[in-house]
Amino acid sequence: MFVQYNPNPMQKNVGDCTVRAISKAMNKSWNEVYTELCAKGFELCDMPDSNAVWGAYLLANGYKRFMLPEVCPMCYTIADFAAEHTEGTFIVGTGSHVVCISEGGKIFDSWDSSDRMPIYYFMKEEGAQNEL
Known about the structure:
Helix content is about 30%, strand content about 20%. The chain is of the alpha+beta class. Strand 3 and strand 4 (about 100) form a beta hairpin. The longest helix has 15 residues, at about 30-45.
């Protein structure tokens, strides 16, 4: 089920999906996540929304990355993933979009992206502590 979620202080909903998804997953403000991603980007000499930067940020904060099998890459959607993953919090990537799924399989985003095809996801490992 899609739930409208947009922590962006200016209510923008284009270009900051990574910050929005991580904000929801980590229960942090948009500003806090954006600042931390900028710091990680500076450290890695890359843009804060690059896959390498936000992936490294999540790994440093106890998350693990998982690839989805390519059994039916054009028919498996974010809605399907959410229906199958009702326990835990997930940051799901499509290659061009990032969304948070939590609270019993709800899709938290600023727009309904449930029909997009997921490629990979991050999930926090049990007992892992945040580095930042």
